[in-house]
Protein 1
Amino acid sequence: MWWSNLFTNTSPASFFNFSFLPKYGPYFLKGIAYTLLLAVVSVLIAVIPALLLAIMRLSKNKLVKGLSGAYIAVFRSTPLLVQLSIIYFGLFGAISIPRITILGFVDISRFIPGVVALALNSSAYVAEIFRGGILAVDIGQTEAARSLGLSSWSSMKLVVLPQAIKNVLPALANEVVTMVKESSICSMLGMVELMFAAKTVASTTYISLGPYVVAAVIYFCINYPASKAIEAVERRMRRGDKR
Amino acid sequence: MATNAELIRVVDVKKEYNNGAIKALNGCNLIVHQGEVVAIIGASGSGKSTLLRCLNMLETPTSGHIYFDGVDLADKKVDLNLHRRKMGMVFQHFNLFPHKTVMQNITLAPVHLKLKTKSEAKAKGEELLARIGLADKANEYPNMLSGGQKQRIAIVRALAMEPEVMLFDEPTSALDPEMVNEVLDLMRDLAKAGMTMVVVTHEMGFAREVANRVIFMDGGQILEENTPNELFDYPQNPRLKDFLSKVL
């Protein structure tokens, strides 16, 4: 069969050398799980500070507004790898986390710094998403709430945010997709996610290209359908939103 | 009708935008008595909506005073939220909360501000909805309603706070013509029931019939102020004459 060549008799540098798959397949599966866990948990954690940053950004108080603006600027204008390194070696050099393994493959002494770094980074982007979502809610909604005697915080909480959050859910899901890709950087610090799995397999088997091709295919197969699904949800929301 | 007690007094209110480049209000003075219906007319951009929005401080005047129940709302130390409760406002675009049902729209503020318990607020809401013939819409969302229904519910939402005055900002301007009357009828009922009202409107017939006093604004100033019959039949100011010749 033509495809048996894909697993044998191929040079280690060949694009099509996938002979490692039968033996190392499970390794990739664990990598996928780790990657998804990193991405989802980071964005979920990022939501709270992001909301705070967005509201601060819209504040009339210049100091509050400036602080939030500075945070967003710093995290959006420096590379994630640099942020990750500073947080990993700086912050978590000072705070030591015990090496406990959860779920069978996640060493929290590495996972927590990674999640914190990704979440801090992501919160800067999610803050901008929230800010856009809040600004997209008609100002008349706030005026109506204020004219009923609600405080500015109550108006935000009861009237504006529920509408804003519904509007930004697709963008938030897109942020998870972004994080699935960006989290590959965590392999640099020994987190055993998908990219790390590919690197390990490559160096163990001396098959230099195939493992990365497999990783690329896996990333694509997660993200492409996910973003298509988000697009479909967005289209439906727009149709159902003629209020 | 006892119209003696003074409810709102506007003293020399100015409103400027862009550091004085745009003068929306150029020194307005106005008194609204309890139980009075005041209609504000004028061309677009004359400042009538700005003046109305200054009354409950949705716009902050650049200078001047707004006394409501004797308290100067333009004073920065005043807790506006307490006073806004007593001033219902109705907007051109209804501004119902789309993520809340009709009943939730009505009960949100009274319950959140602890003026009523949930069941009291709901009972009041049911009573008000029954009064406007929309009791069956209590659990609908606003997007299921017609424009006229939305605006009547917006009025009810404001009434649920049991306000001392109702401010209307062109309440029928965004409505299809066939729905204008149902809203005006409700406003007429309110006026008859003795509600103090300030109404910015393009409906000259309504102003003439329902208002005790009509105010004509142009260029951010109140140019003429009179009973409806006097103002519409014997206009004095040339700009009012010009305006009326175009709209009547």
Note: Strands of chain B lie at 6-17, 22-33, 37-41, 63-68, 71-72, 87-90, 165-169, 196-200, 213-218, 221-226.
Protein 2
Amino acid sequence: MNGYNFAYLDEQTKRMIRRALLKAVAIPGYQVPFGGREMPMPYGWGTGGVQLTASILGADDILKVIDQGADDTTNAVSIRHFFQRVAGVETTTATTAADVIQTRHRIPETPLRAGQILVFQVPIPEPLRFIEPSEQETRLMHALEEYGVMHVKLYEDIARYGHIATTYAYPVKVDGRYVMDPSPIPKFDNPKLDGNPALMLFGAGREKRLYAIPPYTRVESLDFEDHPFEVQRWEHACALCGSDHSYLDEVITDDQGGRMFVCSDTDYCQSRRGEVA
Amino acid sequence: MLSETGASPKRARPRLTVAGLHKRFLLHGQGGVEIDVMRDLSLTLQAGECLVLAGRSGIGKSTLLKMLYGDYRIDQGRIRLHFDDGDLDLETLPTYAWHGLRRDVIGYVSQFLRVVPRVAAVDVVMEPLLARGADEADSRQRAETLLARLNLPERLWQLPPGTFSGGEQQRVNIARGFIGEHPLLLLDEPTASLDAANRDVVIALIGEAKARGTAMLGIFHDEDVRERVADRLLPLDGSLGGLSNASQPCRESLS
Amino acid sequence: MKKPVLERPVLLDVQGITRLYGPAKGCEAIDFQLHAGEVLGIVGESGSGKSTLLRVLAGLEAPDAGQVLYRRQADDAGGEDAELDLYAIGEARRRALLRLEWGLVHQNPRDGLRMGVSAGANIGERLMAQGQRHYGQLRASGQAWMRQVELDPGRIDDAPRTFSGGMQQRLQIARTLVTRPRLVFMDEPTGGLDVSVQARLLDMLRTLVRQLGLSVVLVTHDLAVARLLAHRLLVMRRGQVVETGLTDQILDDPQHEYTQLLVSSVLTP
């Protein structure tokens, strides 16, 4: 496409973001400020993730974009088309075939491999924000590892609901140091953060922060000794592929209350069905 | 025992000596007027002895007790406590040490009860024991025994003494003062508002304290009581009072 | 009879503390020592600098000059430096000290509580900050402390905003004392409360001081509160200490002109 630099952003901006990313990789879980640019889409639509993807994408890379696990939802389709137009890169829906996967709210079920990069879209990067409105104070709390308040939130969950009711954006501690918001992925995906061979990058466009989990990094979900971290379980298996171990979405099928449970990861579901067929 | 001869060693030496005590109040609010209320007062008090301060009414006998208790500063002179293993001079005692001294050594029965409002009488009485880390149940029992002895009706024990009559408050105050069995006890009119029966109880308490070796310094207006408890009288007309009749120069607004 | 042991180790050694916002605004050249187990009252009128001094002592505001030295007990120090210079140590250490070994009770409980989370979470926060990770034990501590400050343990899951002012203040005290701090700073702890509630709180504070062996720096403008809680007083006026002494001495035998005026200005019902 004429008139645009490769992958939309100019090279100086990409360089600035890559430098920030290097710092983020060097300090796992630490939020690095970056000079966010205006993107041709509204905040909340993945501007943070898009800028990160634009900065790391090479002409030979194969890109996959998912939203809530699906390749065919509006957000995923439009971001995929965006990069097809401004970078001319090859795209895919197959997790195994992708070099870069931009995601909103899920980690693919298919295990990632070394060399792959997962880019998360992040609405609120600061895990301490719910209790401390001051940015200056939260930075200090991170710097001094004052993380007692994170457990205050979990304590409140148990006091109120009898168990830790936080089901998404469940806070983690990265490499035994920084407490990090893993973006609104279901806590079902939290174990996939731990020791993952892929590089995981997180971009928050509105707040202009990025952070990273390098490959094979220890990532622990916060919990109590007598209320250990647990992931969601379903009584059903996927109505389409029969999987009993993946994250399921409940889908309403008619106006009479008909419903079914299906994998939220469309690529995973389809590939299983392909194998079965 | 080792080589005790004759009188008990408790009585062999004084517990308290006061020498050349002066007290002057400077009143800034009244044009810097100075009032000498005490001149060159000296005394010696033995263990097991009750020394009664004698003198005209209104010359400020309480001033001496207040100096001994640390309520008033010591301008000039010496107040020395004697212990088996040495002496302690109160005029040079650091401020922070008074708290422990009052807890362990010097007890004071003042004319007025000054306590946290809404605290039950029995809790007021047992506090000196708790302050020393005593067991709560034991302390409570001792407090109740004393209150019973002083004929304070049992229904009042769990009530705060703020609403009690003068005599009832006085008995709470006496129980609180005697429960700690301090080796030096200062008594400021402890029997002032008591009836004959309760006066007798206080006299008995003083007698028991003497037997324990407590040294007491007291003010008693009631002549009958004075005669029954005093081992000696200390005449003070020469060293107290003076230039004016203002014996209480500062308002005791918090008393 | 043996001589009583009256020596108490110095816990806080304050040397030449000055923090001025303008001439006579703030506090100037303050020296004193706080001994273990002592309750020291700082009294004076509004604007006398007592709150500024407290903020400096409590580690919230660096002084323009002077030092605040904290002499830790051997058993606390655990092989670390026995003496800490509050504003010479790093911020991380200072904040950890404030969070774990010291406590601060604000006049307004809203400043010291997290109003949005339950009473139990408020009490448990300092323990969680210390690394306690057992929900059942945190809850048990929360209930025990609620009993200690005369709150109904059945209300452990209620938010502080559903509590009365006096209850909120007691909750703040429980939240502060749960880690058994050595040293507690209190800024007008009974300030905003009804008189009847004040009395109960005063009695509770006295009991806690005795039971926990607390050392306290108490700021108050209320001489009656000072009389009942403090062993010793500093009288401040226009940023300076004009008189110090045993509480009874300051109130019954004030020496300085200003102290005499202050004491004689108290209303008695």
Note: The first strand of chain A starts at residue 32 and ends at 33.
